[in-house]
Write a structure and sequence with these properties.
The complex is a heterodimer of chains A (about 210) and B (about 60).
Chain A: E1 6-13, H1 21-33, E2 37-39, H2 50-60, E3 61-66, H3 84-98, E4 104-105, E5 108-109, H4 114-118, E6 128-129, H5 134-144, E7 145-146, H6 153-165, H7 167-174, H8 182-199
Parallel strand pairs in A: 1-2, 1-3, 3-4, 5-6
Helix pairs in contact in A: 1-5, 1-6, 1-8, 2-3, 5-6, 6-8, 7-8
Chain B: E1 5-6, H1 14-20, H2 25-44, H3 55-64
Chain lengths: ~210, ~60
Amino acid sequence: MPPLPDPNGVFLNVPYDEEFSSLYIAYIVGLCQLGLVPHMASETPGGGRRLDRIFEHIQSCRYSIPDLSRVELSVTPTAVPRFNMALELGMTITWQKLHPSRHDWFVWESEPYRIQRSAGDLNGTDACIHNGTPDGFLRELWSAFWRETMPSVPRMLENYRFVNNNLNAILYKKGTSNPYDRSVFMELCWISKTLADLIRPTGSAARKP
Amino acid sequence: MRKPIHLTAPPPTLEEMEKHFRIPKARKEELQALVDEFKAMLSNRKDAPVNSAEPEKRRKRASAA
């Protein structure tokens, strides 16, 4: 049996594509604002099998956030569905069923009822609908978790915009155009956590939408 | 509607997070400059609620008016 999971650890199971990068930044910033610690498969160095690394993250994090909004046909002459997210969600569900006190998961989608069409067996699961926008994501995140001290959605958006506006500068310094690169991910986590600590509300200011 | 999950474990400190997200000292100093810029922005603005509309939407509304 693996050690107990990090109670603040969240495994982000999201597509690594350019169109998703704004939401990816919102995921990192939003989770850090709630005092959670994002993790991704790409953060682990080494050449191990990707699926093994993903399963290790699922086991070591208390929560998983699989985003199914990009489960769609690829844009190639021989279009095939993108199954990675769904495959990894299956692993997550199995782990949670075996160890319900160790893990919990939330499915994220861009449109209401899309999940019923793409994965009908998930009927009865309340997906978090982010409408494909950072605003929508942060609003849903705010509803999905509750902490005594958490910033308002506008405050979270403010932090998101600041980090997103500085993404190109971070990429330039790292000599990459890939925001999902391991070192970029770590810097985004660091700066998001630092900004979150600056605006963490206390007492009566906490949890105003 | 699913009930929100109540997070009871204290949030990690920056030092705890840094153990995992190792960033070279020189680079951290550069990133700290960005944080200072954010701090200055917070201290300079009036404490009005932040408009959640995207800047693009706001620009469009302003130009339509």
